[in-house]
């Protein structure tokens, strides 16, 4: 199994492609969240609005210089893709870093979306929180890079537009 927490230089496109191959369906996503900030991201929790993962969400903290590598997929025998939220607590702050993804089954009316936000307090991901992030100006999964500022931190990220996509997000200090 290739999911886990890695040193950032070890997180490559080849590793994400391995994750995609290990996921057992046509609609899937390989996720990496790289922590280039000085804070520690800890106590991750995941909520699936649709789909699942055959991998448990790696629980080790994301220290500076580390990154999450993980994957999600659609559930078998359902007519939806994969969508959900991962939330990390930002250690020593009363803040949560939340990442939302959505990979639909059918692209006729839908497209890939992703979002990254910081919220006050310790957020528990659930259906209501997923939809809050989904409608809070997400980025389109179109292969283009997007960036933004989150309080005293910033991020860059990109998600593919296919049913078998990778998403790479880098979280760091400072303004975008």
Report on this model:
- The structure is a single chain.
- The mean pLDDT is 94.
- This protein has helices spanning 13-22, 127-134; strands at 4-7, 28-35, 41-50, 66-73, 82-90, 95-103, 113-120, 139-140, 146-150, 153-159, 164-173.
- It contains two helices and eleven strands, in the order βαββββββαββββ.
- The strands form two sheets. Strands 1-4-2-11-10-9 form a six-stranded mixed sheet, with helices on one face. It has a five-stranded antiparallel sheet with strand order 3-5-6-7-8, covered by helices on one side.
- It has one domain: Sandwich (Mutm (Fpg) Protein, Chain: A, domain 2).
- The chain has 176 residues and is mainly β.
- This is 17704_t:CDS:1.
- One of its GO terms (molecular function) is channel activity.
- It comes from Acaulospora morrowiae.
- Pfam families: Anemone_cytotox.
- InterPro entries: Actinoporin_PFT (IPR050677), Anemon_actinoporin-like (IPR009104), Cytolysin/lectin (IPR015926).
Label this structure with key terms.
176 residues, mainly beta, 6-stranded mixed beta sheet, 5-stranded antiparallel beta sheet, 2 helices
Average residue pLDDT: 94
What's the CATH superfamily, by name?
Answer: Cytolysin/lectin
Oligomer designation? single chain
The strand line-up of the biggest sheet is 1-4-2-11-10-9
**What is the CATH class name?**
Mainly Beta
Proportion of β residues?
Answer: over 45%
Shape: globular
- CATH architecture designation: Sandwich
Biggest β-sheet strands, sense, barrel: 6 strands, mixed
pLDDT < 50 stretches: none
**CATH topology type:** Mutm (Fpg) Protein, Chain: A, domain 2
Radius of gyration: 15 Å
Termini separation comes to 34 Å
Order of helices and strands: EHEEEEEEHEEEE
Tally of DSSP β-strands: 11
Number of continuous helical runs:
2
Q: What is the helix content?
A: 10-25%
């Amino acid at each position: 199994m290739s999911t886990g927490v890695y040193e950032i230089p070890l997180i490559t496109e080849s590793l994400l492609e391995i994750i995609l191959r290990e996921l057992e369906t046509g609609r899937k996503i390989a996720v990496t969240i790289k922590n280039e900030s000085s804070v520690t991201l800890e106590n991750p929790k995941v909520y699936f609005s649709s789909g699942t993962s055959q991998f448990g969400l790696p629980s080790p903290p994301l220290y500076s210089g580390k990154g999450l590598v993980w994957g999600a997929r659609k559930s078998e025998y359902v007519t939806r893709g994969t969508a959900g939220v991962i939330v990390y607590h930002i250690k020593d702050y009363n803040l949560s870093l939340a990442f939302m993804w959505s990979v639909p089954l059918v692209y006729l009316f839908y497209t890939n979306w992703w979002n990254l936000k910081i919220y006050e307090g310790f957020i528990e991901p659930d259906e209501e929180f997923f939809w809050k992030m989904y409608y809070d100006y997400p980025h389109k999964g179109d292969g283009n890079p997007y960036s933004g500022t989150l309080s005293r931190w910033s991020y860059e990220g990109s998600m593919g537009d296919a049913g078998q996509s990778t998403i790479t997000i880098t979280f760091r200090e400072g303004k975008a």
